[in-house]
Write a structure and sequence with these properties.
Blueprint lengths: L4 H8 L25 E2 L16 H4 L3 E2 L16 E8 L2 E8 L5 E6 L8 E2 L7 H6 L3 E5 L8 H21 L9 E7 L1 H9 L2 H6 L8 E5 L7 H16 L12 H12 E3 L3 E2 L1 H13 L7 H5 L2 H8 L34 H9 L2 E2 L27 E6 L8 H12 L6 E6 L9 H17 L11 H5 L18 H8 L6
Parallel strand pairs: 1-12, 2-6, 5-7, 5-8, 8-9, 9-13, 13-14
Antiparallel strand pairs: 3-4, 4-7, 10-11
Helix pairs in contact: 4-5, 7-9
């Protein structure tokens, strides 16, 4: 896509970045590169007298305003519903049940809310479709903000288990749901994928067996997300002429503008020769050549949230006590040729390599890991959506998930769909509804829906990739900014 100065305002001004979570993986193209300097940072937390490491997350106080929980009927929806709101184990919740309930319950897991001290409940994006078709839905605020997927899984499961009790307390006795599905976006997509994993069923304190899952823009490669973020930062520093020598890079903020000046004439629209190399490295790190990715790389509202994460220490803002990021298995590419050129060989041999602490995220005896795993071990229908241009949670997450599912024989339960969107979680309601319908029909009748091949490089690089499930038709619940961005992107036939 050619972006002229005349288009600049039209592109930048309407974009609203839908915040979520932030990675890539050692499952990146090519094999592990063992050479080069390595860095394993020391633990960043204190140790309690009992020997249990203390986390920054444990010291944070999150509060909920109960007066913000109640909610009214959705505008334009004729279906009558009961709506309840309250607090369960420190997590706020909303529940909506149609008067003509079909017996099925949908749990919704929201995305990353930063370290905001105030907890919030997000309505499920496909609320209109659900209540008009008889589904009950429930959503939790989670008892903690930050990238606390453990809290997300436990609090969502607890709400599912309490559904009939809450209904009875509100003078509507209900039978147990005949089916329970989980839907999540961004970090919530990690929650949804982790909730159906074998390890979660074995170790969660609140155990729920879901009948199917829809993960949208999800961190389905779990901690490999942070490998990507670290690798992208190190590549930017290397190509920007200020390579990192230690990790974490504690003085990154002081170097950031000089790095950007070396990579772009105008960040991030007009790259220098070094900036074009970084673009190629980014494409390789995030899933290989594919439509939309280069366009997204040039848009500041999509780059800025990624760069704000540069300089992190690998503990995921104190969710862990030790570094989880690992770049030892990443082969950096500076062009579309998978063979390593002499320049790429030099870069891979000399760029700083970061090694994760082996015990950064172990299995625990008190419930889930601090960052629950998505091992690819599941046996219920799963449908995923992922935009091709996502910089924050890149498309490579889907490739990692597919490889893990293949390795565990779970791939027969997985359907993945690519969407031709530039940002993070910017799906139309139509795309989300179709994905949900496909998952439920599959679970109910055994009819496996269509999906996209995410692993074949030639298929992914095709100019029409992502056209099969992209739906630009919008309605009253869609974002106007999303429409504006999509209109300037290469269209499908």
């Amino acid at each position: 896509m050619q972006i002229t100065s005349g288009l600049l305002k039209a592109i930048i001004s309407p974009i609203i970045f839908l915040a979520g979570c932030g990675g890539n993986s050692t499952d990146s193209p090519s094999t592990a590169i063992e050479t080069g300097a390595t860095a394993t940072p020391p633990p960043t937390s204190a140790v309690t007298p009992t020997g249990q490491a203390s986390r920054l997350q444990d010291s944070r106080i999150y509060t909920l305003d109960p007066t913000a929980l109640p909610f009214g009927p959705m505008a334009g929806v004729a279906a009558e519903t009961d709506r309840w709101a309250g607090v369960l184990n420190g997590s706020g919740y909303r529940i909506e049940v149609p008067k003509r309930w079909n017996g099925r319950l949908v749990l919704y897991a929201h995305g990353y809310d930063g370290l905001e001290p105030v907890l919030k409940v997000s309505d499920v994006p496909i609320r209109r479709y659900l209540v008009e078709n008889g589904y009950a839905w429930a959503a939790a605020s989670f008892s903690k903000n930050g990238y606390d997927v453990r809290a997300g899984v436990e609090d969502t499961n607890a709400l599912a288990l309490a559904f009939t009790t809450i209904a009875a307390q509100n003078s509507r006795p209900l039978p147990a749901p005949s089916k329970i599905y989980i839907v999540g976006a961004s970090m919530g997509g990690h929650v949804a994928a982790a909730a159906i994993e074998r390890e979660t069923l074995e170790t969660a304190n609140n155990k729920v067996r879901y009948n199917g899952a829809l993960s949208m823009c999800g961190v389905v490669g779990d901690t490999d997300l942070f490998n990507y973020a670290t690798a992208y930062q190190l590549a930017a520093q290397y190509l920007g002429g200020l390579p990192a020598t230690t990790f974490p890079v504690t003085d990154f903020a002081g170097k950031e503008e000089r790095i950007k000046d070396a990579l772009w004439r105008i960040f991030p629209l007009f790259p220098t020769d070094q900036g074009r190399k970084l673009s190629a490295a980014f494409i390789s790190l995030t899933g290989g050549p594919r439509p939309i990715a280069e366009d997204s790389f040039k848009l500041k509202p999509f780059q800025d949230p990624v760069w704000r994460r540069f300089g992190d220490d690998g503990t995921i803002e104190g969710i862990l006590t030790k570094n989880i990021a690992d770049t030892t298995g990443i082969a950096y590419q500076l062009d579309a040729d998978p063979a390593l050129s002499p320049e790429e060989q030099t870069m891979n041999a000399t760029i700083l390599r970061v090694t994760s602490a082996s015990d950064a995220n172990p299995r625990r005896t008190d419930g889930l890991r601090w960052v629950p795993k998505v091992n690819g071990q599941f046996d219920v229908p799963v449908v995923t959506l992922h935009s091709l241009g996502d910089l924050f949670v890149p498309f490579s997450m889907q490739q990692i998930y597919k490889r893990r599912a293949l390795a565990n024989g779970s791939d027969r339960w997985l359907i993945q769909r690519a969407i031709r969107s530039p940002g993070h979680c910017d799906f139309t309601i139509t795309e989300q509804v179709e994905a949900f319908q496909s998952m439920v029909t599959w679970e109910q009748f055994g009819t496996k829906p269509a999906g996209d091949d995410v692993l074949n490089p030639a298929v992914v690089a095709n100019a029409n990739y992502g056209c099969s499930f992209t739906r630009n038709t919008t309605g009253p619940d869609d974002s106007g900014a999303l429409n504006a961005v999509r209109k300037i992107l290469p269209s499908c036939p």
